[in-house]
Amino acid sequence: MISKVVAVAASAAIGLFGSASHAGDVATAKAQPELTTIRIAGQDVPVVNGGLYDRFRSNPPLSVIAAETPEVDLSWFRQLKKERVDIGFESYSPNFYYKNSRVTAIFTADLDKLRELMPAKVLEQVQPLQVWPGRGLVALTAYSYRYCDNDSYEEIGLSVVTNKPGSASFGPFTLLRQSMSDDFWGYVLKLPVNTELARVRGVVGYNLPKWLTDIHFRETDSAVVVEIFDSATRQLDVTLETRKLGDLSSEESMVRNSFTNVDRQGQLTTGYSVSRQLSHASSSSADSVKLTLTDGSLSAYIKALKLGKLVKYEYVPLFQGALYAPKPL
C-alpha cells in the first residue's frame, strides 16, 4: 500500500511548471523570447515581453487563455475564485497552471538525515514519515509548466514526506491515510527553477528554497529526460531519466499537496496546491527510473540522503494546477 503515495510537497510548489526546453543544439537553436524588466518586491525581474505575466500579473481573464490555447479545458478554473493578496508584493491567489506535465520518483531515505535538514521550528509541528526503522521518504519531481500565469518554466522539487501539522504520525498508516484521501503533506528541501520570475515569486511570496539554474526537460519516444545544471559551475549536475508508461488513465484525479515552512520573519507558514490530473500512470518497478549523480552541489546533497528503494514512480503527462498563497500556521 505504500506504493500508493504520490509526490507531496514538491507539487506544493506548484509554483511549480514550464515549457519543455531541450539540451545541446536544440536549445541553442530555439528562438529566445524578447524580455522586458518589471519590479517585484523591489527587485528587477526579466519577464517575457507581452507574456501573460507582463500583461496581467497573475490575473489573466480566462477569455484570454481560451483564445490563446483553445485546446485547453478551462472548466475547472471557472469554478475557482482568485483573490488579491499581499505576499511581499501584490498578487492573486490561487495561481493557475493550465497545461503542465511532471514525473516523480519517490525513494526511501535516511530518517536521521531528513530530520537534520528540517528546521527545529518545523519539526515541532511535523515529522518525516517513518516507513520502516531508520527510513523516511523523499519525492524528487521534475515539472514542466508549459502554460501558466507565470508564463512557462521548469522546476525540480526535492521534498520530505511528512505528517499533517498537529496530527500524530503513525508512519505507514499515516502514509496510507494520506494516499487514500489524496491529501499529502511535506517539507520542501530544494526547488531550483529556470526563470528569474519563478525564483523571485517563490522565494519572496511562498518562502520556498528556490534558485535559478539551467534545466533541460525533454522527451524521447520512450522516456522523459531531465538534466539539472549546477548554478555555480554550469556543469551537468543531476540527470533524471524516467520511462514513459503505457496504459495511461484519463480518469480525472484531484490531488492536494500541502507544505510547511518558515517565512522571512521566522514564523511558521503553510501553503498548498491542488492538481487536476488528466493523464497519469504509475509504477513501482526499479527500472522505471534512472538517477545519475555527479560531483555537483545538488548531487552531493542528494547523496547525503542515502537514497534506497524506489517506492513509486509517477508519470503525469498532463495536469492542471492551482497554487494557493501561504498563510500563518
What would you note in describing this structure?
The chain has 329 residues and is of the alpha+beta class. It is 19% helix and 43% strand. A 7-stranded mixed barrel has the order 5-6-7-8-12-13-15. It has a 4-stranded antiparallel beta sheet with strand order 9-10-11-14, covered by helices on one side. A hairpin with a 3-residue loop joins strand 9 and strand 10. The protein starts with 8 loop residues before the first helix and ends with a strand.
Major beta sheet, specifics? 7 strands, mixed, barrel
Order of helices and strands: HHEEHHEEEHHEEHEHEEEEEEHE
Ends apart, CA distance between termini: 30 Å
Lateral arrangement of strands in the main beta sheet: 5-6-7-8-12-13-15
Low-pLDDT stretches are 1-29
Over the alpha carbons, how many angstroms does the gyration radius reach?
18 Å
Strand-residue proportion = 35-45%
* Anisotropy-based shape: globular
Secondary-structure-based class equals: alpha+beta
Number of strands: 15
Number of helices: 9
Mean pLDDT: 90
Helix % is 10-25%
Helices and strands in order:
Blueprint: H1 9-12, H2 24-29, E1 35-40, E2 43-48, H3 52-56, H4 62-68, E3 83-86, E4 90-93, E5 95-110, H5 111-117, H6 120-123, E6 135-148, E7 151-162, H7 172-181, E8 183-190, H8 196-206, E9 215-219, E10 223-229, E11 236-243, E12 253-262, E13 268-283, E14 289-293, H9 297-304, E15 310-328
Parallel strand pairs: 8-12
Antiparallel strand pairs: 1-2, 3-4, 5-6, 5-15, 6-7, 7-8, 9-10, 10-11, 11-14, 12-13, 13-15
